[in-house]
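Module 6 notes. Inverse folding takes a fixed backbone as the condition and produces residue identities as the prediction. Think of it as a translation problem where the source language is geometry and the target language is the twenty amino acids. Below is one complete input and output pair. Work through it position by position during the lab.
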């Protein structure tokens, strides 16, 4: 509702004249509106021609997503608080008739007095400031002492804490208005539930303001007296210390000299003459009959986090960068409190990282990466491994249709992982992911690889990983909204269709599936197979690579990629097939037929003819990720073999003490470490040299050519040492072996990469200036 709409509602004046409380308040017989001034959104000040008094109209927003959009509740709260001698504007009436101003509204008196912001506070003497702050503290203490029974909420009196609920609300609010991944916000959201404060009698459940600050308080024009506390739209049931923390939060928010609109006073309190924080808190707790001042830093962190999310909401609504900067500034301030509280170790990882010195060595990884590493490790220990076999047993089922239903246990684990902030860890772009480097993700991916299930649970599972990266790099705004967004949130699955059944698909000359341009789009015709995830009923779309030009003089520019919706009647899943007898439900591998399917123009991904270049970028990371995942699975097999060797007695000797076994184990461990170091080196080169550097291509090819074959050999030896149980589904050895064998041709067969390594080796040899040095070359007899 705009100001003009209010001013031109001819029946508003008539309606006000029917309200006796308004006439009595204004002291007039006939009400004559003079002006209507909008103060903030949905709040208007009315002045009158025949009275010096003013009233405020509070109108209901037409936007259901507006926080605190519960007008009747606000009115009732104001009535109750006024009756309890709480300094709030006096309520005059409530109107639910939308014909008056277009929406429901209620009226309160306009309280004349002083409102302070930071600039106005500078002109107030230190003595008066101290009195002003003490009066506010007392008013808050009075609010938090009002009985829930009096407010009609007595049935909730027995509850003691709303922190779990509040933390969940903050998380949901953040995700609803997320525009860019904020690692500080995510760390705060993860830390808060882990450190919920113990029960405190003073931190009682009560009515709280919900958005309290000094700027919401109207003071007497000349005296240090609170006349009214304004803006109760976010009033709710909560713990008392949340309001108090919101009030004193500027003491913990740094001063940025005007760079941000949300400056605090941290570091300059004495310079600007702010009252001593302990005196402010003491005034509150004295009224609450407490001789001690409890620690409220937890509530301070919650308050600053909420302020940060509020700024994020403003950024999403306005797209003004200043609000995003404000949000980052505040979340950093909140995280700094945690760092000071925990001596820089909020998640208790420093000791663990020190003990794992051999793991981290001097690799350039951040403390944030190490934090994610140990959080993932704990999650896998507590949540994944206990149910892993149950899930894998369901994944081994033989499908009876061409579509598979998801495994509920996996979906539940995904929800938990997402809530813990362990989600989309592979995305290095901070707009969409955690901003970790490739090297850092290698460490995390290797850890996830200890379980065949973990990558999916953390939304780091192929083919979604590659498809997400393609959409980030080449997707249009329309494609990102329709396809990328649900993938990032884990709301759907997708597939990538490149391999064709009767031809070697590593050679683009061989592709037979065609993408033919036509009016308004393309005709997709042909078949693909070994298409993973297509049978999953959650797979709503896929990316198909095919021949878009009959001119094969330059085969690299003859291929295109296109986004296809699975509800297209011309797209059919012909069948599912297992890999070494394993169907991997619900993902599976399938053969898909595209029977002259029409695909709209807007579904072309990237440029026409640009698929080969795009695919190489996708497959480069995909090859490394497959290898690193296999390294993790191989580590699990080695650990299982060593645990087994401790229990196996052969000819009165423990297997682990057998000399032949020890020699074999030594060889296997060295082979494993070579695989691991190859993958770490490739990750480091991706970061330092970039994805287009020849040395990076060589490093990834070395991984793809060596790691699958080496891991297959290591796992084979583990199976041999394990005995008959090693080839059964009782242990994950058989599954790991299947995967190792399969990835020897996934994303390009190992033989192709061996040839690549050979070429790179000769290239490096040609540029070795020592080749012509006397005595370095071939010996001359």
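Target side of the pair, the amino acids:
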């Amino acid at each position: 509702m705009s100001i003009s709409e209010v001013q031109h509602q001819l029946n508003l004046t008539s309606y006000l004249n029917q309200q006796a409380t308004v006439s009595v308040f204004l002291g007039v017989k006939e009400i004559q509106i003079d002006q209507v001034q909008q103060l903030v959104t949905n709040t208007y000040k009315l002045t009158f021609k025949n009275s010096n008094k003013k009233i405020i109209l509070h109108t209901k927003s037409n936007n259901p997503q507006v926080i605190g959009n519960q007008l009747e509740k606000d009115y009732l709260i104001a009535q109750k608080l006024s009756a309890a001698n709480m300094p709030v504007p006096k309520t005059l009436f409530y109107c639910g008739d939308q014909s008056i101003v277009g929406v429901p509204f209620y009226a309160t008196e306009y309280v004349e007095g002083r409102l302070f912001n930071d600039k106005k506070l500078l002109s107030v003497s230190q003595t008066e400031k101290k009195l002003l702050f003490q009066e506010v503290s007392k008013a808050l203490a009075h609010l938090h002492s009002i009985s829930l029974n009096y407010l009609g909420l007595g049935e909730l009196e027995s509850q003691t804490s709303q922190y779990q609920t509040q933390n969940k609300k903050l998380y949901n609010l953040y995700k609803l208005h997320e525009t860019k991944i904020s690692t500080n916000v995510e760390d705060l959201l993860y830390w808060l539930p882990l450190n919920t404060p113990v029960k405190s009698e003073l931190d009682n459940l009560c009515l709280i303001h919900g958005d309290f600050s000094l700027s919401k308080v109207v003071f007497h024009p000349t005296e240090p007296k609170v006349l009214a506390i304004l803006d109760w739209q976010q009033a709710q049931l909560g713990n008392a210390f949340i309001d108090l923390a919101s009030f004193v939060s500027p003491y913990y928010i740094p001063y940025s000299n005007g760079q941000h609109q949300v400056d605090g006073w941290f570091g300059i309190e004495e310079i600007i003459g702010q009252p001593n924080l302990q005196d402010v808190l003491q005034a509150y707790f004295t009224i609450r009959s407490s001789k001690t001042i409890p620690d409220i830093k937890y509530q301070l962190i919650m308050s600053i986090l909420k302020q940060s999310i509020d700024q994020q909401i403003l950024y999403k609504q306005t797209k003004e960068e200043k609000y995003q900067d404000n949000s980052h500034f505040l979340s950093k301030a909140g995280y700094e409190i945690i760092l000071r509280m925990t001596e820089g170790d909020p998640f208790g990882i420093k000791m663990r990282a020190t003990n794992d010195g051999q793991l981290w060595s001097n690799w350039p990884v951040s403390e944030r990466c190490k934090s994610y590493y140990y959080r993932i490790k704990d999650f896998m220990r507590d949540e994944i491994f206990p149910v892993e076999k149950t899930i894998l047993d369901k994944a081994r089922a033989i499908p009876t249709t061409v579509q598979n239903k998801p495994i509920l246990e996996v979906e539940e684990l995904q929800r938990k992982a997402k809530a813990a902030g362990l989600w989309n860890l592979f995305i290095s772009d901070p707009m969409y992911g955690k901003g970790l480097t490739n090297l850092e993700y290698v460490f995390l991916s290797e850890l996830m690889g200890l379980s065949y299930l973990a990558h999916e649970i953390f939304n780091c599972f192929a083919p979604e990983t590659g498809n997400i990266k393609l959409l980030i790099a080449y997707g249009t705004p329309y494609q990102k909204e329709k396809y990328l967004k649900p993938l990032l949130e884990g709301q759907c699955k997708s597939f990538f269709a490149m391999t064709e059944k009767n031809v070697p698909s590593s050679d683009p000359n061989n592709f037979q599936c065609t993408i033919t341009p036509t009016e308004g789009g393309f005709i997709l015709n042909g078949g693909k197979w070994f298409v993973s995830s297509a049978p999953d009923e959650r797979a709503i779309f896929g990316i198909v690579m095919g021949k878009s030009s009959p001119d094969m003089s330059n085969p690299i520019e003859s291929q295109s990629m296109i986004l296809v919706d699975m509800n297209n009647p011309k797209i059919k899943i012909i069948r599912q097939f297992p890999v070494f007898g394993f169907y991997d439900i619900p993902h599976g591998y399938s053969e898909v037929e595209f029977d002259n399917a029409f695909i709209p123009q807007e579904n072309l991904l990237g440029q026409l003819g640009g698929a080969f270049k795009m695919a190489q970028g996708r497959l480069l990371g995909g090859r490394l990720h497959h290898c690193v995942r296999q390294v993790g699975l191989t580590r699990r097999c080695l650990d299982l073999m060593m645990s087994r060797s401790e229990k196996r007695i052969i000819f009165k000797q423990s297997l682990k003490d057998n000399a032949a076994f020890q020699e074999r184990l030594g060889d296997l461990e060295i082979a494993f470490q070579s695989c691991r170091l190859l993958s770490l080196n490739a990750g480091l080169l991706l970061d330092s040299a970039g994805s287009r550097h020849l040395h990076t291509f060589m490093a990834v090819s070395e991984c793809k050519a060596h790691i699958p074959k080496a891991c297959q050999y290591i796992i084979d030896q583990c199976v041999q040492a394990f005995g008959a149980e090693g080839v059964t589904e009782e242990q994950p050895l058989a599954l790991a072996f299947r995967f190792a064998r399969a990835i020897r041709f996934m994303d390009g067969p190992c033989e192709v990469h061996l040839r690549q390594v050979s070429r790179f080796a000769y290239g490096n040899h040609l540029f070795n200036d020592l080749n012509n040095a006397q005595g370095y070359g071939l010996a001359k007899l």
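Reference fact for the lab report: The first helix runs from residue 3 to 7.
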